[in-house]
Amino acid sequence: MGDRRRKKIAVLGSGTVGSTIAYHLMIDRVCDDIVLMDTNKERVWAHVRDLRHAQSYLNHKAAIYEGGFSDCADADIVIITASPPYKAGMRRTDLLRQSGAVMKETVPMIMESGFNGVIVVLTNPVDAIAYYVWKLSGLPATSVIGTGTYIDTIRAIHHMALRLDIEPHEITAFCIGEHAEKKFIPRGSVTIKGVCAKHHHFNSHMDTTAFLSDIASDIETETERIVLGKGSTQYGVTASLMGIIKALLYDVRMLTPVSVFPEGNGNMNDIYISLPAVIGAGGIKNVSVPDLSDQEEKFLIQAAGNIRRCIDQLL
Fold first, then answer.
1. In this structure, which of 11, 105, 237, 315 has its CB flanked by the most CB atoms within 10 Å?
2. In 3D, which of 142, 144, 125 has the Cα closest to residue 308?
3. 2-45 pLDDT, tens per residue?
4. Does 165 share its domain with 309?
5. What's the confidence (pLDDT) of residue 315?
6. Whether residue 229 sits in one domain with residue 98
7. C-alpha 265: how far from its chain's center?
8. What is the domain-level CATH number for residue 49?
């Protein structure tokens, strides 16, 4: 590695999601140092040793170890996954107060270490919790990112590809709004084989708006069934997270919907909400609100209202 500065990521929470993130960071050779942090010391010790065993088959030898908040001091990114357990049938907002309590305890300790990098939040309800982490951290809003509807977008493209019998890479689309609860797919954000969805003929029985509404519904139904079947989702969200992490570490300038602070937008005042944003070294470079129909504008305002009510319960 020569004199190149080592790239370090700390993961707060070593449950199903946190440990799977560490695994992806290792096998994707994303960084040089991976720190796992958790109040459950036996579990985090076990994950670290298990990951080191797997590392025996990799040429890239990242340093993987369990650590504490002081290890955040020189981290480029802290990924927050710590949360109470999510169970099938629960709304993500049911986790609000418990997740908020975890953030209130842990974020100040992250910052007391001298951390000055980017925080990526996965803890649900992610839009409200990302806002709360921003407030607790004192970091610029551009340096605190919630994963938001990024995973919803990945899932939407998967379902559209199945429905249309084409490859996912032939589709572009954005889910925006509130992760899971009030997400939607703006018609103008979708292209099918390079053709805008406004001009695409899906089938003789369903217009574009109804098709996209069905896709959004399919995402939530399938996600709920996954949680019911195995207790959580982990592979989709952690694999897709690597795109965000690589954009932050290597200044890729990736355009994707994530939960951000839409500064200067009167309809979305003082919240975090999922909108298309450019991610690069140091965090968010630009946030944009796509062209929306009148109905889509109402959906976005409803999502903003939901998130605002959650934030008010935290403050």
1. 11
2. 125
3. 446 899 999 999 999 999 999 999 999 999 999 999 999 999 99
4. yes
5. 86
6. no
7. 22
8. 3.40.50.720
3-state secondary structure of 314: helix
CB within 8 Å of 163: residues ≥ 6 apart? 211, 215
User: CA 11 to CA 134: how far, in whole Å?
Assistant: 17
* Interacting residues of 45 by C-beta distance below 8 A, sequence separation 6+: 66
User: Out of 179, 199, 200, 201, which one is annotated catalytic?
Assistant: 179
Q: What pLDDT score was predicted for residue 210?
A: 84
3-class SS of residue 283: strand
Within-domain flag for 1 = no
- Residue 2 resides in a domain: no
Both structure tokens of 124: 């649900």
How many structural domains compose the chain? 2
Among 117, 146, 175, residue at a domain's last position: 146
Select from 108, 131, 146 the last residue of a domain: 146
Q: Is 179 a catalytic residue?
A: yes
Closest Cα to residue 19, out of 122, 98, 104?
122
Which residues does 165 contact at the CB level (< 8 Å), separation at least 6? none
Q: How confident is the model at residue 87, as a pLDDT? A: 66
Report the C-alpha gap between 102 and 104 in whole angstroms: 6
Residue among 61, 65, 100, 104 nearest 83 (CA): 100
Phi–psi pair at 221, nearest 5 degrees: -65, -45
Which domain range does residue 210 map to? 150-314
The answer to the question of residue 104 being in a domain is yes
Domain check: are 17 and 139 in the same one?
A: yes
Is the Cα dihedral 289, 290, 296, 297 positive or negative?
A: positive
Report helix, strand or coil for 11: strand
Q: Does residue 180 sit within a domain?
A: yes
| pLDDT for position 66 | 96
A 10 A CB-CB count for 55 gives 16
Length of the chain: 315
